[in-house]
Amino acid sequence: MKRFVIIDLLWIGLIVLAGWTWSLHDQSEYADRLDHYGLSENALVGHSAKTTTVTTAAKQLAAANLADLQVQFRVSANRRLLYANGDYGSLPLSSGQWFSDADLRSALPVVVVGQAVKPLYTGSSQQYLKGQAGFVPVLGVVATRGASPLNRVIFQNASGQATPAVRLSQTTIYVDGKHLAAQRAALGKLLGVSWHAYTYDTTGNRSWWAEVGLTILRSVGLVAGAVVLAALAARLMHVGLPQGLDATMRQRYARSLFTRALGHSAIAAAAGVAGSWWWFYLTDKTRMLGFAVALWAVGALALWFWTRHQARKDDVDDIA
């Protein structure tokens, strides 16, 4: 099967291109997430009539022990109080560090600020932000492209004692996490919120075409590439058939070549997936894997079609 080596290499290249396509898409989604303060498209938002303080609500959330969750209490355009637990995503830091689990349960106020938040004061190698509660330690500085609102945000731990105390009814509440569908009811009862979907606008002024259309166009091109590779493989299989075989033997030999070609393409596709996972930025590897499997399936169906088409043509030639 040495003649199929070029086909295998082309399959690897096709899957790597698929990885590149979804990497670009994931980077676009990540840029959107940064512009929405780290919230995903699945986030929920609501308002509470409760007069419970945010600090008390943070303690209740900690006691509920809901995993892989973040809750943001929006106090003003650029100020958010944060409670979080487990794995809930990350934001890019230009210096310092993000909140630790201990920070998000501590009564000591601490903040993470955007790079455009000024002025910060330095004392004993520690930066501070001056606020209503005095000088608050700055754990880290988040930064992204200049136009992003993330650069102007002030995140403070919701568990920190705030002066004056902020109440739930004074905030807009956002929740996000891996298990949000299962946690929705419990969060609504605890915080006194009737949730609705978060309105998730695209980054900046990019159009639908820039956000989604290019990914669709590239994906269509990759599908077409899989069909072309299948046609090329079918042609090589036909050329490789021994001469002088009767119809039955030719069909058996063709089936054997078909099976081996499928195996080769599957191994090549797996190698392409592994290379893409290693080389490209992918936030959702499962999605990229699913697309690679779909590409291989399209190639397999196309190979079956082309080999059947060639077999029927050979049968006609034999009759003639």
List keywords for this structure.
11 strands, 320 residues, alpha+beta, 11-stranded mixed beta sheet, elongated
Write the layout of secondary structure elements.
Elements: H1 5-35, E1 44-47, H2 54-64, E2 69-76, E3 79-85, E4 93-96, E5 111-114, E6 121-123, E7 126-131, E8 134-142, E9 154-157, E10 172-177, H3 180-191, E11 196-197, H4 208-239, H5 247-279, H6 285-319
Parallel strand pairs: 3-9, 5-8
Antiparallel strand pairs: 1-10, 1-11, 2-3, 2-10, 4-8, 5-9, 6-7, 7-8
Helix pairs in contact: 1-4, 1-5, 1-6, 4-5, 4-6, 5-6
Structural overview:
This protein has 320 residues and is an alpha+beta fold. The chain is built from six helices and eleven strands. Strands 1, 2, 3, 4, 5, 6, 7, 8, 9, 10 and 11 form an eleven-stranded mixed beta sheet that branches. Helix 5 packs antiparallel against helix 6.
The helix content, as a percent range, equals 40-55%
Radius of gyration: 28 Å
Average pLDDT across residues? 87
Low-confidence stretches: none
Biggest sheet statistics: 11 strands, mixed
Distance between the termini: 31 Å
What is the H/E string? HEHEEEEEEEEEHEHHH
Share in β-strands: 15-25%
Task: Output the structural class.
Answer: alpha+beta
How would you describe the shape?
elongated
Query: Treating each run of at least 4 consecutive H or I residues as one helix, how many helices?
Result: 6
Record field, number of beta strands: 11
Please give a quick description of this structure.
By secondary structure, the chain is α+β, with helices and mostly antiparallel strands. The protein has six helices and eleven strands.
